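It would be a great kindness if you could assist me with a short task in structural biology. The matter concerns a single protein, recorded as an amino acid sequence and a row of backbone structure tokens. Kindly check, if you would, that the fold set down in the tokens agrees with what the sequence suggests. Thank you for your consideration; the sequence and its tokens are set out here:
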Amino acid sequence: MNPAQREIILGTVSLPLPLTIPNLALWLDAADSSTITLDGSNNVSQWDDKSGNSGRDAVQATALRRPPLGTINGVQALDFDGIDDLLTVTHGAWADLPSYSIYGVVSMDDTSLVYRAWIGKEASAATRKILIGNDASTGLFYNSSLDTINVSKAATYANNVPVLISAHKDGNTTARAYVNGSASSADTTVTTGTNTSDIQIGAGALGGYLWPGQVGEVLIYSDHHSGATRGLIEAYLKAKWGTP
């Protein structure tokens, strides 16, 4: 079976793969048009969470900051302008995330625009919980000041080339990022900090680090994935979005 169509059948109910893996905290899937609310200008005002939890939709109340739709390999995605577009998921206790696995399918329009993030959660650099994007070159930037994480991987992004990124933190033990299934080096974490900042999609710190490109799918699990579980999710996303 194609991993993008993999499901578990329970009686007469079939579940897509992300829902079959425990501790799914957030699932944003732009390929599912039923989760997208467009305003009168055909820009996205709300991106509904598919995790089954309540109160975790990504929203933008300001019309001028709403992204339009685009595509990643012909599949519907959100297209952030790198200037002021972003969506916000309101903070809740679930988002403190002492352990987590985050997956994203993204693409950049212009890799010369450095220090840009497709997901972020911080009130300031000193209280950063999550920031994932590109660094001063075209490499992966995965950082948390609160959790003492600073992971990089060279040659991650190229203009208009989709990429599958995942970042995993195991409590106070290790953090590691993967690019299209290939691991970065592991970094030991020494703290587990929390903050009450909202999660931003298409941006990082307080609306900064704005992402110039597409975001197709975001999955957050409040659990650390390794080995087989990570491989299942990455295979599902790769088959669906055509990432390398």
Q: What stands out?
A: Helices lie at 17-20, 227-241.
